[in-house]
Amino acid sequence: MPADTIRVTPRARALAAAIRSTRENSGISGRELSKRLGLSHGTVSHWETGRRIPTPEDVASFLAVAGVTGKERQRLLDLARHASEPNWLTVGMPGIPQQLAGAVECERSASAIVEWAPMAVPGLLQTAGYSRAVSAAGGLTSDETERRATVRAGRREIILRDDPVRFTALIGEHSLSDRIGTPPVMLDQLHFLLELAERDNVTIQVVPPRVGWHPGLAGPFVLYDFPDSPAVVHFEHYSSGAFVPDDDDVQAYRQAVSRIRELALSPADTIDLITESASELERSA
């Protein structure tokens, strides 16, 4: 039988998302799936929310019913085998899809998110044009660039929906002065930041340069808080990343957030700086 999850791990969230999307893509209703597997509807529903972890055997039965084979079957079975493990390190480009699934589910389930982005605009605040420029500069194909821009736009719904997540973006000032894409793309991005900063659930603070050493110099990170499970820290790098739910690590990054915010401009001063950056770009364009 599936085991209850006391700590909903990032892997468990990724597995839940994969089960939910696979079932929906197969056209099978939750009740029909439960009937075919000989399980209660509540059990399958809990699989799709990450509240219960199905065994690898349960997942294998589910995949057989859904007609999933090959690499996708192996991917989901691998998630199931390790779903209860707290830390999750993915290495190399093949790991990115699973890591992205974990991040999307963390965003979807979070009650609050804090992101420290020293060198670029945080993903949840990126315009489609900015996202495309980043992907294109990374050498991705036009199809992959469009796919990532679409996914990025969908992820942003968590801060725009009726019950939005509280999102705090701590951004290095370099993110405003660097030119990602064409001047119109960057100008549109700056205006979008100003638009989002007006929302009650979004706080944007810029950290100026030359403020001395602080924990953020160690690299970018995201801190997720959940209403129903312990917090998680996510480190995303170019071709690898990690989710770390260890309580001591989480507390250390909460302290890092506090220190970075002490050095950051206030939200009001940040808006003034972004407005000034947009005006300078308009004059130079």
Automatic annotation (TrEMBL):
Domain HTH cro/C1-type per the UniProt entry, residue ranges: 19-73
Molecular function via GO: DNA binding
The record's listing under Pfam families reads: DUF5753 (PF19054), HTH_31 (PF13560)
Please indicate which superkingdom the organism of origin belongs to.
Bacteria
Q: Which InterPro entries match?
A: Cro/C1-type_HTH, DUF5753, Lambda_DNA-bd_dom_sf
* Protein name, per record: Transcriptional regulator with XRE-family HTH domain
Name its species. Answer: Saccharopolyspora gloriosae
